[in-house]
## 1
Amino acid sequence: MRGSNNHHKRTPINPKSLGLIGIRVQTSQCYIWLVTYPRGSRSAARAASVSCDCNISMKPIRKAVFPVAGLGTRFLPATKAMPKEMLPVVDRPLIQYVVDEAREAGIEHFIFVTGRNKHIIEDHFDRQVELENALRDRQQREVIEFLARELPLPGTTSFTRQQEPLGLGHAVWCARELVGAEPFALLLPDMLIQHTPGCLAQMIDAARHLDDAANVIAVEEAPRERLHMYGVVGIGAQREKTFSITEMVEKPAPEQAPSNLIVTGRYILQPEIFDLLSNQERGAGGEIQLTDAMISLGKSQPYYGVKFDGRSFDCGSKVGFLTANVAYALARPDLAPAFRQVLREMLQSTVQQPNPTASLSRTKRGHADAAKHEPQLSTID
């Protein structure tokens, strides 16, 4: 997040203006004055001191990790042969929304941690030559151009396998060689966040003033009765658009939760997390838990929370997935008017009760009993 720190610069003090002897040395991030004090001065006990004329802020976030190896069992049979990340919200798969959020935030390298039978995700972010040829034959050049804009640039996507289903922490650890020794973003594709600018862009903007060892987590408020379903953070001192996180508790009882702010599937993490994950003992469910490693990292590095603008949708649940489809459809100018009318009619309609006598058989009473248990259909007036 270097590059645009003009609002953080301060006017450096030249030691020579104070009658001191100094040498100005330029480093990759700032200028440093190496100062020696005159003999006999009150500071003579100190041989030298170092003065920096700039703030060292968090490094740029260039890489994002997307864990997409989950089995999606809550959406069976739809996910039997298709990855859950490819389930459509209106006319775009879940993973496309999350990748678009990362692109908007300036991410340059997209790292997907996949599993078996997830090759469709890789195909989605590649060109489909046969489709392009068919569209070209039909003179649908605008569609070809639209699909081209959706793709990441060549050489900016990487795919690695999580060979065993050992949890989120293990999935993140599988990306260690591709991430390297730099901070990175972690985006969970199950969670969609509807807002412009996106959640990750808000996090990066809010974290510009933080030091280069900071970790950042996106949080939002949740009802007390639902806190046992999420990771919850403790609230410390406010620092511009962020606040320090004092503790992290995984799925606490409501009365024991440190706040009503829950973790929402967006993280900026330092690379030291990989060393902790490599030695992390298995936790709940026999899996390597990311939260456990984050708590360990918090002993040596600070964590900050960002309350983002926007509405989140937990698309790992059926209700959340359906709600996301409704919300994103209503946000589309080409769909909203007609879709809103259909929704209104559906909500106003009543369930039509079929007439049991209409299904009575002239020969057997058993047919009448079966008719009582037929599914009842609702109609749109």
## 2
Amino acid sequence: MNSVTPLAFSAQPDDLKFAYWVPNVSGGLVVSKIPQRTSWDLEYNIRLAQIAEQAGFDYALTQIRFIGSYGAEHQHESTTFSTALLAATRRLKVITAILPGPWHPGVVAKLGASADQLFGGRWAVNVVSGWFQGEFEALGLPWLEHDARYRRSREFIQILKGIWTEDNFSFKGEFYQINNFTLKPKPLQTPHPEIFQGGNSRAAQENAGTVSDWYFMNGNTPDGHRAQIETVSSLARRSRRWVRFGANAFVIARDTEREAWAELEAIIAHADAEAVGAFGTAVKQAGQASPEGKGMWQDSQFRDLVQYNDGFRTNLIGTPEQIAERIVRLKRLGVNLILCGFLHFQDEVAYFGERILPLVRQLERALPEIDAAPA
């Protein structure tokens, strides 16, 4: 059931990239009690990574949680889990989520350099500024105010890049100090491993424009994604930089549109209402603490919050043909990567590779003709 057919189209440099959320926490990617053929254990995830690699996925993103919460009661640590997936694959890149506060940037620089060297330049990092106050309190760590968390993340990324690209690196900031530090060996990738981040607030977008390589966006409408891309791109131009964009989407692909929408409604009907409500309260409080009162999840409704990162809103729900067309529309908006979640990961990643990715590549090849056609 999990076998996939090799892609008929060879990859091109400007092709859309595809990533999937690694289910290294229990409960999958939805706060719902609906039955799922998904597991958070290592054996399942190794097989999933191999299926994804064969299906044509470029990246896997491991999640970071320190304590159980909102239906995700068990979790494997992200850096260790990432290296296990790297060891079981040959082409797939693995993005490791890291949370400043519990992690020190010098330690992550060392860990990342070793992983990159050992696994052929396939390690990347997602710097998560943090939304879950309970984790920090449980670990006895200070819970910084919203913009301070993003200032810390900016220093964290600056230090990663400095250690990875310079000898005798020093840094004195608000949160970290590095004294004449030289890392050997440095990462295999040049100039350094890819650095991802997310967040909807002004502070998050300024970080993306100033220091990050990739900006992850929560699920959204086309207009919502376009606005974020325009804002972050404008900020990046001020620093003479170029940022790439990833859009989160929960994919429900079925042979008929009716089947796909019925699956979505079943997920929502089985939602863990108490956990969804508690999650919504926590994340909205985190965003409202920004000076402009606008962060991730601020306009999310109950049904949006059933998927942690608003993945239903991107509307990759329907037949393979409908989903492929919507994916290519996202590319035309400026999206460079689709970050996918699924209900039944192994089966649906394989289906995505068999039925959707070839259609996307075919539509991508036709894009110059489409864009040149009269309106």
